[in-house]
């Protein structure tokens, strides 16, 4: 389960990413001391909790992705960030200004580069994207994203690690139809499946979809194995036992339907 850390765990500011992210969010890098006292270099991400369910989605996504053999950062936490200290280092979104501290999603930085940043040259960048799609575990990641209705898996949130593995680092747009659309928030779909359809020849794309369908066998096992941890996470970040229990019930119903035998194959129109 992601650790729950107080503001004292935030140690020092270590800069900001160069690229822009989704609206209503702010990301910075920081040294964070985990519950065991180990100092970690982390990416720390704010989401406006009054407007978006992103913090919940990040935590559930990290738990469930790891249980389906998707590569994820080894460390994650919900971190209370001291706003006064951070405001001395960077401009902050308006929703933070009335707070002395605010919860943020925190993951250890993966040693590597986002696929979207592998090269400044179009040819090599395109080749890097192709290699990502051809990697053995990418269909597993695509299958997970389809199962949990993640609308925003772009090349900026897939990291090619120093060990050659591709790591999923962002799950904010998870459970899109369940948690975002009812509030009138809609993400433009960006997915590895969509990229594979554009970049692969028909026969290779068919195999990619078959690999996605085959990976779906892990989804029901994941939700069974992670049920207690997901419930504990929601209880830790949501006010009131009733609210967390009701939300988990809705999430479980949504995901259970999508991990039934044959569901993924029918969605992708393949036979495995």
Quick recap of the structure?
This protein has 272 residues and is of the alpha+beta class. It has 2 domains: 3-108, Phosphorylase Kinase, domain 1 (2-Layer Sandwich), CATH 3.30.200; 112-219 and 261-268.
Notes on the structure:
By secondary structure, the protein is of the alpha+beta class. 41% of the residues lie in helices and 18% in strands. The protein has helices at 54-66, 83-87, 122-134, 138-147, 176-180, 192-199, 202-215, 219-237, 241-258, 263-268; strands spanning 3-5, 10-13, 25-33, 39-47, 76-82, 101-108, 112-114, 158-161, 166-168. α1 (54-66) packs antiparallel against α8 (219-237) and α4 crosses α7 (202-215). The longest helix is centred in the C-terminal third of the chain and has 19 residues, at 219-237. The chain is globular, with a radius of gyration of 19 Å.
Instruction: Briefly note the structural class of the backbone.
Output: alpha+beta
Q: Which ranges are low-confidence, i.e. pLDDT below 50, for 5 or more consecutive residues? A: none
- Helix run count: 10
Mean pLDDT: 91
- Count of the separate structural domains: 2
N-to-C order of helices and strands: EEEEHEHEEHHEEHHHHHH
* Radius of gyration, taken over Cα atoms and rounded to an integer in Å: 19 Å
Strand order of the largest sheet: 1-5-6-4-3-2
Outline the biggest β-sheet.
6 strands, mixed
Helix content: 40-55%
Topology diagram in text:
Blueprint: E1 3-5, E2 10-13, E3 25-33, E4 39-47, H1 54-66, E5 76-82, H2 83-87, E6 101-108, E7 112-114, H3 122-134, H4 138-147, E8 158-161, E9 166-168, H5 176-180, H6 192-199, H7 202-215, H8 219-237, H9 241-258, H10 263-268
């Amino acid at each position: 389960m992601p650790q729950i850390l107080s503001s004292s765990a935030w140690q020092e500011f270590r800069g900001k990413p160069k690229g822009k992210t989704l609206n209503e969010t702010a990301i910075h890098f920081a040294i964070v001391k985990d519950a065991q006292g180990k100092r970690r270099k982390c990416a720390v991400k704010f989401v406006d909790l009054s407007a978006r369910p992103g913090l919940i989605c990040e935590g559930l996504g990290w738990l469930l992705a790891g249980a389906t053999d998707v590569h994820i950062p080894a460390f994650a936490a919900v971190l209370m960030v001291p706003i006064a200290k951070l405001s001395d280092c960077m401009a902050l979104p308006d929703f933070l200004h009335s707070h002395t501290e605010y919860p943020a999603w925190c993951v250890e930085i993966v040693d590597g580069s986002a696929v979207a940043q592998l090269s400044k040259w179009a040819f090599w960048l395109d080749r890097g994207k192709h290699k990502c799609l051809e990697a053995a575990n990418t269909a597993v990641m695509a299958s997970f994203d389809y199962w949990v209705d993640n609308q925003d898996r772009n090349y900026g949130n897939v990291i090619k690690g120093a060990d050659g593995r591709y790591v999923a680092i962002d799950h904010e747009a998870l459970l899109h139809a369940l948690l975002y659309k009812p509030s009138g928030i809609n993400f433009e779909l960006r997915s590895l499946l969509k990229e594979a359809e554009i970049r692969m020849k028909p026969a290779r794309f068919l195999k990619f979809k078959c690999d996605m369908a085959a990976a779906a066998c892990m989804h029901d096992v994941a939700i069974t194995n992670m049920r207690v941890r997901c419930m504990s996470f929601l209880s830790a970040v949501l006010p009131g036992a009733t609210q967390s229990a009701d939300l988990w019930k809705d999430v479980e119903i949504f995901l259970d339907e999508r991990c039934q035998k044959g569901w993924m194959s029918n969605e992708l129109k393949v036979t495995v």
